[in-house]
Amino acid sequence: MKLVTRTQLGWPASAAPTQTSTKGVKVHYEGTPVSTRLLADHDACLAEWQAIRKSHLANTTENYSDVAYNYAACPHGYLLEGRGIGKRTGANGNQELNIAHYAIVGLVGDEGLTEPTDAMLAAIRDGIDLLRRNGAGTEIRGHRDGYATACPGPALYAWVQKGAPRPTSLEEDDVPLTDADAEKVAVATVNKLLKGGALETSDVDRIAKAVAARPATLTDAQVQALATNPALAEAIAEKVAVKLAERLAK
Ligand SMILES: [Zn+2]
Ligand SMILES: [Zn+2]
Q: What domains lie within the chain, and their CATH numbers?
């Protein structure tokens, strides 16, 4: 996962209302012309995301406290933080729909850049998986489900209807994890486990990968909590050791 945080975007903490769980995630598109220049220039993606937030903050009809989406995904596979984890979206059409699902927007529109890249689909999937580790249920829907809109456009909607599969060329482990991502991923995954969430093999892999990328990721309290589950701690330690050895060998 290649996450660009609010801090990196220069934004303060989101003032959006708290929403710690939902039935799932709804996928959106911009619904306006989007320049194909984004494909060749990731700075243009960041500028686009800044502009979306600015336009939402200027929208007096909706009276938004922040950009309406929880995350955006760009053609280069970056997941751009919006309201983020634990926040109600403002994007789904009305309050009832906003309470029911989080929202992720793909930076494609109804003209110009209309087709998501595989990297964008992988980033949307990263966002769905991250939200699932933090209270989102398993539903994956389009904005148009339950609301009269063309959003998220034909290409993204067709993908949503297939269950939003991760492109096979971009399995999660193939995408390099930055240090900033590593911390968020490890903390989110461990916290889910500590709350009694079901342990999946991918969770162990994820923590191991994050800890190997950034050994000081976990707090003492989290390490202590993991120690109460020796099997889990051992599995993680083993995988971390393998990953560290791989890094040293390079
Ligand atoms: Zn939408
Ligand atoms: Zn980009």
A: 2-174 (3.40.80.10), 179-249 (no CATH)
